[in-house]
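Re: the 341-residue chain
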Amino acid sequence: MTPEHHSPILPTVSRAFLEDWLSALRTYCPPPQLAGFLDQIGLANTVQPHARVTHDQIVRLYQLVAVETGDEMMGLWSRTVRTGALKHLCASVRGASSLSAALFRFSSFWNLILDDYAVKLESEGDALRVLLVPRGDQTAQRFGHMLLLKLAHGIASWLTGRELPLRDVSFGFARPDFAEDYPILFPAPIRFGQPQSSITIDGLLGSLPVSRSEAETQDFLARAPRDWIFTSSREHALPLRLRELLLLSDRLDYHLNDAAQVLNLTPRTLIRRLDADSTSFQGIKDGLRRDIAIRDLSHGTKSIEAISQDIGFASSANFHRAFKRWTGVTPGTYRRGGMHL
């Protein structure tokens, strides 16, 4: 999963997703330290309710917190995961004879470190499952569960040289208000309110060979968590497939009928399936326009008028109104830094 293989999804996540992480960090980092981290990335403590957070901002915040606190899991578990743990984990799993053996090593590694949860590998029929099993009465830490399962999926994908399709993802906590952010992280059907958090892959994938060199390992570690926290899968759930189709088409005047034809679906079926995923064709298109605008405003090389035209607005005034509806601020305010999260 090298950079050139990443899918051009341009992901952003909601301010609520970031707040879920920050609420955990506030119990771990002294306020001045956390404020310093946010300042270094250009993020502010007070943000607009509809603010968006980019892939790069998430990656940079992780890197800062993990290095400066000396905890590679940033206080998300009851025991500190000391600097170097991820390096030793990678060294262990890349010497395995197969993916299933690597995932067994993955679970064994975390069972030596974690006190509050056991990491269990199950092989059941044609499914291979990594589960987080609580040791006693535990309240699931949402961001911690997400991050550890993403690490399992990311390492498995890195070892096999391609992002592995997931059969399903389960979380042992109730559906959060920002549940629409999770498909950006996991390319699979996602269920909340389950007895345990887990990811499941096809059991046949367990026999895949694993092979990574020392140099590749160092590159993976240097880029962490860039290669595993966001999905780059081309086997997405339908909303992400549609988003990618719109982006690659370079036509934001795309109509639902056009998309349905390319996806080999009837328009009615496409509407019904998107509705089942709690989204819509227009919602996906607006989300993509929003994220392209955020990217281009952040880079600062295009005028606001050019960005407006590029994403299909008939006038800059219409773009200003839409951008403020999407993010809570105007494009000019965002560009000047007033939108920093």
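Strands lie at 12-14, 52-54, 117-124, 127-134, 168-170, 190-191, 197-202.
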